[in-house]
Specification:
Distance between the termini: 21 Å
Radius of gyration: 28 Å
Helix content: under 10%
Strand content: over 45%
Shape: rod-shaped
Number of helices: 2
Amino acid sequence: AIASDVDNTMASAVKVVSGFHPIIAAKFKRLVPGPAIGVAYGEANSNATTTIAAGAQIFGDSVSLSASDTNDFNVVTKAKIKGIKVPNLGNAFAVALSFVESDANVNVNGSVTARETDITIDASSIDLNNDVFTVAKIKRALGGLAGKAAGAGGGAGLKPASNAGAIGIAGAVSIVVSNNDANAFVGGSATLFANRDLWLRAYAEDNFKAISIAGAKLASTVAIGGGIAVTDYTNTADAEIGDGATVTCTYTNAEVAA
């Protein structure tokens, strides 16, 4: 067997918290001023290539030629405010940028002979996860454990401003450009002989997800919450035998699938 395999994990995460933060509240007895702005950037490239060049000769009882990418991509940004310390600073912005590319290629241009059984040519590119997630949330009031901490003698520093101000904005933006390709190619100069079967396969799978969530709950004169996801996904698989190639299967099947 001749194989090239890539296993790629990319994770980029940013979390920004303003207002009530447990550690700062416990140590300094105060809220963190806004705004809360978080940006996460992720970029990844996977490339697996197996090539049998023109003039090369491969012999075996069975022959397997493969290229495989297995990817796990994740970009997350969270920007949250819980408790507005200063009017007009209760704004939260979360931006996540993901640019990923994966290519698996098997190119056969030489001579391949399987004396006993099969020739298998397999290109596979799989994004197990291709996720982008943004959250931007604002709350003026303190509730739950934060509210109990403020009411337990935390002092004025743990009390949110009585007036959230004229405007409060929560914005979440996810931007994704993703290309995932698998190519299994037998060129015109190739000669393939299998005593049983030929399997030529290309498989591309992209499990993608892009989510943007925004919420503004602060009773300002103007409160705006907006989430935007801008995505460009390409997922292709090609299996091809070029013009002029010689393929011989003495037993049963020659299968080309993508």
